[in-house]
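#struct-pred
JK: can someone run the complex with S-adenosylmethionine? inputs below
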Amino acid sequence: MDAEFWQARWASNQIGFHEGAPNSYLTAHVAQLGLEPGAAVFLPLCGKTHDIDWLLSQGFAVRGIELNQGAVEEVFARLGLTPHLSMKGDLRCYEAGSLRLYAGDFFALTGAELGPVAAIYDRAALVALPPQMRQAYSAHLGQLTGTVPQLLVSLNYDQSRADGPPFAVSPEEIAQHYSPQYEITSLEKGAIGGPLGKRVEGVEEIWHLSPKG
Ligand SMILES: C[S@@+](CC[C@H](N)C(=O)[O-])C[C@H]1O[C@@H](n2cnc3c(N)ncnc32)[C@H](O)[C@@H]1O
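RT: done, structure tokens with the ligand placed:
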């Protein structure tokens, strides 16, 4: 899944992954992150998700990165915010108040640029990537953030029944990526919904990744 693939999806409005409301797993389980008021939450591959608006409304700061510039600009417009724009290498950095979103490649973002974050929220980021990219993704996420608590929403289904994205990512694979540094706990699971749920049966699951002592 290269940049051209995703930009074409945005250009043709094939964005079935975009939910019209905050994700119900996030709203139910955000307390597991144990965040202080004002703490920064990092959303990799954030699209234009309403989870950004919801986290801000709960008093958190939000950092995110998304390839599609239009999606990033739409978030600020939706929130009625006029961002300050600056170039950070190849990334466009949009910032207003406690919201900072980068338009560009996740792999071009550095920890020095991102700065400290208190938690990660991954919905449809790991599962958006094909198998050969997921190890690089989880390794880069660790380099960017250190080992901070994470909520991860995953999908698992019979990959032979549908092509990704979104891809099936098994609990065993999640453990391969994250068990060296995290205790991994399943918080809730349910049937896959949305466009994918019409094509295959499978499980959507939210995981709490808690740094090992
Ligand atoms: C499946 S969508 C999920 C978006 C969002 N997390 C949500 O829940 O709506 C995956 C997003 O990742 C973006 N993306 C894919 N590869 C990326 C990369 N290397 N850097 C930044 N964004 C990327 C795509 O443009 C797309 O918007």
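RT: quick notes.
Residues 6, 17-18, 45-47, 49, 65-68, 105-107, 123-125, 128, 165 surround S-adenosylmethionine (CB under 6 Å).
Residues 88 and 113 are 8 Å apart (CA to CA).
JK: thanks, will look after standup
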